[in-house]
């Protein structure tokens, strides 16, 4: 058996996303036949002990304490960026200019201006065969990939309504600590960019239609939070008496939207929906039928086909059949997948695209479009929900 050529990966950052990406790089070649075999060559992080511990835990062969060193190394083919948004542009641009492929976590950047620069550099790099992708991992959830396939097959007819919610509750405790996700200078925005960006990307990708304008509302319910405290998962509990610092991002984002060629949409992103843990939901109503997805029941898709059963309501498709996207490589029918599989599928698609010399999806240009919608939402919210066209948005 011939050994596939390696794809030597250098990852920057090793927290939640770093762990998910490490798992994906390790797992992808074990379940999918890949034309190149990912190697976990090096991981970078500023804290020497932290990065060594992460390398040992997640299986990276070496460590660096400066991401620039990763980019200088000639035994690395691809840079995987799993750091907060304020670092994405600098790392991605340096990596692409040095001839390394790039996988960059979402949202692509913290501003349209940064995302535009990254896109220009990515497009020039692609002409030299150096490829890049933004990590909107939910595109690789089998049920959402099936939803896209069904829309493309015309099963819904013309789309009229897009209803997207991304509901979490990990910030509901007013004493949850002030983390980087609550600091605009690091994260760019709050619920809007962290989770709303996923909904925007999924809605545009599945319908094949861009959002052209929005009217928005942003709210920060808890304006100050404890500095430090016990982190649990993404939130946790800080002291109620100690020093507090300002929350500089939105806790919740709501907006209505128009899509090109007709559909209208309503979006909600919040970390205060008590009881909703990771309810990334999307419902589409078309002229022939409707589809509904909820990540909390991620192995299924609800489908209503008006012509077949006008009075029967939605039926549930278990998205665990070998004929469904990505599922054939996993377990027998009915044995579902989890959150981590989206990241594994992302690696599979990226490695295949790199080997074929084709642009992976979503490209930085696709992610720039999401960034423009995020910016338009913020402008509208700053202007008492005034209608804001996405293409007129100021960078
Ligand atoms: C936190 O809200 C978060 O981890 C996001 O940052 C991820 O992108 C999403 O997949 C799950 O929630």
List keywords for this structure.
395 residues; six-stranded parallel β-sheet; 10 helices; globular
What secondary-structure arrangement, pairings included, does this model have?
Layout: E1 5-12, H1 16-31, E2 36-44, H2 48-58, E3 62-64, H3 67-72, E4 78-81, H4 88-97, E5 101-105, H5 112-127, E6 132-135, H6 142-152, E7 159-167, H7 184-187, H8 191-207, E8 211-219, E9 224-226, E10 230-232, E11 235-237, E12 244-246, E13 252-259, E14 264-270, E15 279-286, E16 289-294, E17 300-305, E18 315-318, H9 339-356, H10 364-382, E19 388-389
Parallel strand pairs: 1-2, 1-4, 2-3, 4-5, 5-6, 7-14
Antiparallel strand pairs: 7-15, 8-13, 8-19, 9-12, 10-11, 13-14, 15-16, 16-17, 17-18
Helix pairs in contact: 1-9, 4-5, 5-10, 6-8, 8-10
Bound molecules: alpha-L-sorbopyranose (SOE).
The site of alpha-L-sorbopyranose has 6 residues, from α8.
Account of the 3D structure:
The protein has 395 residues and is of the alpha/beta class. Helix content is 32%, strand content 26%. The chain is built from 10 helices and 19 strands. The chain has helices at residues 16-31, 48-58, 67-72, 88-97, 112-127, 142-152, 184-187, 191-207, 339-356, 364-382; strands at residues 5-12, 36-44, 62-64, 78-81, 101-105, 132-135, 159-167, 211-219, 224-226, 230-232, 235-237, 244-246, 252-259, 264-270, 279-286, 289-294, 300-305, 315-318, 388-389. A 9-stranded mixed beta sheet has the order 18-17-16-15-7-14-13-8-19. The termini are far apart. The model has no long low-confidence stretch (mean pLDDT 96). Bound molecules: alpha-L-sorbopyranose. Residues 16, 168, 194-195, 234, 278 line the site of alpha-L-sorbopyranose. Alpha-L-sorbopyranose binds at residues 16, 168, 194-195, 234, 278.
